[in-house]
Amino acid sequence: MKSNARIPLILGGVVAVAVIAGTLYMRNPAQGPGDAGPDLAEAGRVQPAPATAPAAPPARGQGRNVRTGDGSLDDQLVSQLGKRAEMREEYAARTRELKERSAARFASEQVDPAWAPAKETELSTLADSPAYEQAGAKPRRLSVDCRSSMCRLDGEFESRGQAEDWIMMYMSSVGGKMPNSIVSRTQAPDGSTRVEIYGRGR
Q1: By C-alpha distance, which of 195, 198, 128, 197 is closest to 159?
Q2: pTM (2 d.p.)
């Protein structure tokens, strides 16, 4: 083959190599000959271990000493129970004092024969209503005594529950017939309960 005939073949080969090289360069111009592709780089990267999540706080009400701004809930509960016990003691002390004063006044009065019998009948009639028996709150024994302005009711019941039901029903029915009344309860070891009521009858 003559040298003139080889020139077009050489030029064609050079052009082909240039085209191939240009195509490869345009596909990934930033990579050098030894660079790995982006997907391979991400696949080979070691992912850091996730940070440990902080422990969740205890649910409200769990644990014995949940702190608040004013102290623990236990401390607040003990304080409230203490205040309630103190209030009950104060109420019981006032009731005892009022009962003693009312009993002393009742004992110091003379019987007014023109007023006392009629008042005793009125109060006894209210206490003898069939509604008490229907409600299971009829006393086993009940006495009514009046003097010149004060009256005293003394009743005995089989249980504390019976006594409380009777007191609620009787005091709501007596109304203004015996205002300024003081009620006291005494429970026996067998569960029976004595109720004393002192009140001003006029």
Answers
A1: 195
A2: 0.56
